[in-house]
Amino acid sequence: MPAIHTAIHTDVALTMLNTLGLTAHAAQFTRITSVDDLQALLADASLRTQPWHVLGGGSNLVLPEVVDGLTLRVEIPGRRLIGEDEHAVYVAAGGGENWHQFVQWTLQQGWGGLENLSLIPGTVGAAPIQNIGAYGVEVKDHLFELTAYSLDDGRKRVFSNADCGFAYRDSVFKRAEAGRWLIAEVVFRLPRRPTLVTSYGDIDGELASLGLPRTPQGVARAVIAVRQRKLPDPAQIGNAGSFFKNPIVPETVRDALLAEHPQLVSYPAGAGLCKLAAGWLIEQTGWKGKQLGPVGMYARQALVLVNHGGAVRHDVAELTAAVQVDVAAQFGVVLEPEPVWW
Which of 165, 191, 217 is the last residue of a domain? Predict the structure, then answer.
């Protein structure tokens, strides 16, 4: 007799479940609201003959028109204080929690550390996969551990920060362990005396212009103001935020580019490396505000790819390739997309 599990639906539209707003359908779809839901699915042998895909907030994703197999949307809730010591508090959140709402909740409790990551779309469980980051802070800076379940056999594994293999916009969950785990809960270590990071992206200037206090809550308000001014709201126009990674190159390459392009924007990346501003590179090639079919690069921020309506994965692929070709031709730099492509 098959296991009893959460309802499985067929031919489910995913257009409203990916922030790019791409036209897409899931062949089969179910919601995971608890670990028990997942274990029941795993116990059903009839479901194991098809691929499984784990969907969070859909904010860093390029979907095909038809997603084969079973799509599992993670909606596991919960946020709570699980421990503390003289230096930090330890806070757990379910994988399905909305990331921005979770960050604001931590700040309301008086726990700083995640304020620079305010208003980033997506879920808590998806945040470590991408190692989301903004304004000089990344998830890896405060992630303590996470609990994940194997999609192969249901076994539970606790990943430490080191186990996650974090890198710039990257983790082991995008490489060797891609597609193998469902992240059910994440634990963050938030310092009792957080160090404010305000020099990146002119957060200092935003604090001053808005008359905000130099506190975690003040920094969060400044970050939100900057993001709302520069980035489109996915509810208004489909987008996945910053679409390309800022390329990391040797300082010698940066210096050679500076000789030809004195206005080149770059940031130190440690150990003789630097990070080039992908948005600046894209803007110089003329793609800012330019459209190719139903998609284009946003008129107010060249790093953001937007869907003007009715786009599918092929449209995104065409624009991605066109921008990559032009940036490589002008600067000799290869841009890499940030989103995961199913």
Answer: 191
